[in-house]
Write a structure and sequence with these properties.
By secondary structure, the chain is α/β, with parallel strands linked by helices. The protein contains 13 helices and 14 strands. Strands 1, 2, 3, 4, 5 and 14 form a six-stranded mixed β-sheet that branches. Strands 6-13-7-8-9 form a five-stranded parallel β-sheet, covered by helices on one side. Strands 10-11-12 form a three-stranded antiparallel β-sheet, with no helix packed on it. Helix 1 packs parallel to helix 4.
Length: 427
Amino acid sequence: MHDLVIVGAGPYGLSIAAHAAARGLDTRVFGRPMDSWRNHMPRGMFLKSEPWASNLSAPGRRFRLDQYCAHRGVPAEHGHPIPVDTFASYGLWFAQHAVPEPDERMITRIDAAPVGFTLETEDGQVLRSRSVALATGVLPYLHIPEALRALTEEHVTHSSRHSDLDRFRGADVTVVGAGQAALETAALLAELQARVRIVARAPELVWNSVPPPWKRPWWQRLRAPHSGLGCGWRNWFYAERPGAFRRLPERTRAAVTQTALGPAGAWWIRDRVAAGAIDIRMGRTVVEARQSAGRVRLRTVGSSGAAEDFETDHVIAATGFEASCARMSVLTPRLRSVLARSAGETPRVGRDFRSSYPGLFLAGLVTAADFGPAMRFVQGASYTAPALVGGVERHLTRQPWRGGPAVPPGRQPAPEGPIGVTSRANG
Ligand SMILES: Cc1cc2nc3c(=O)[nH]c(=O)nc-3n(C[C@H](O)[C@H](O)[C@H](O)COP(=O)(O)OP(=O)(O)OC[C@H]3O[C@@H](n4cnc5c(N)ncnc54)[C@H](O)[C@@H]3O)c2cc1C
């Protein structure tokens, strides 16, 4: 029986593992290290976050990105974007040095047991742990607009499906979305001589401004401090005070979750988008898509209601990720059903990232409704990892395993049965 099993070896899972190992917990980490960054982002991509805001977290501020880059003789400077493969290699280096060796198998099933949890690996091994940290990142939650869902993978894919865009060389590709993933995918496609079109609901493209220099007069720093989520006090609050964000009224948090740091292109991609002769159609929603003679026929509608039809070879939905309890499919339905959730159907978490089910801890995107926008970025791992591991330690001390049930009888999920027979816990 392990103290802690961490599911997911991305920036959050690895950071939690580094803190747990340093606290002497019997920890195991599952998943292919940095898989999202190695296999689900296009080669040639750069990070939008500044190098100093892209650190994985280990006790004593060790194993930082700038230390890795110094070893390799690669620059990691403010205002200079980091290539995705440098960041992925940094994550692998971190995994080698700061973390007990990850087990690359995927976890396929997590269920509550009378004591702790049972977890099943993709090849059928069953393990037991007194606590679980679910750090499965963004991939379980990818979002494709309703109108595109009837198309097959040959004709529509989510942007995270492509680490290599080469197959689209010379093709006609429509990218749906207006965020960084959409704009960078479009720029990379144009550089491959694809004919590229961007379709987005937003009335116009939004661009982040060039960050001010790191060293500035004190009054400029006071007026608009740097933060890992951009300049200014509002961003500083989201980046530096996730714990205070959690204490804001639920309605305020929900409004911020929906609006803060919305789709925008990095300053350094703007010229590449302009140079790509990309056909940009803003203020349009895709309302219908069907296959037609090996191509896709799309219908979009503008704000005036005017429809427009056109054909394309392939649609890439760069339409982001939507976390919800329903999509946490690695948890058994009965375990999912007892999780307290917010109005947006994401699971609620306490101050140390515990879910409403004892011993189950959550990290990353699924916690953004409680801890704010930082949880959508690597930046949030530095707050999450020590707080979550503190919570695991408290859980283990409060409920030492003496051979009896660790979960109070009222909090046990009902036996496996039809969905709906279990009740929902309220925290
Ligand atoms: C195109 C793009 C660009 C981005 N650029 C930036 C950026 O510049 N800066 C930034 O801070 N953020 C950026 N992000 C957001 C970024 O994805 C998150 O900040 C970061 O990856 C979150 O780390 P994570 O560990 O939660 O998730 P992930 O990095 O997604 O890691 C989760 C890991 O869990 C694994 N996993 C999932 N399910 C299981 C399972 N059942 N068993 C075992 N393992 C499992 C996955 O394979 C994955 O490796 C970007 C996102 C996208 C899509």
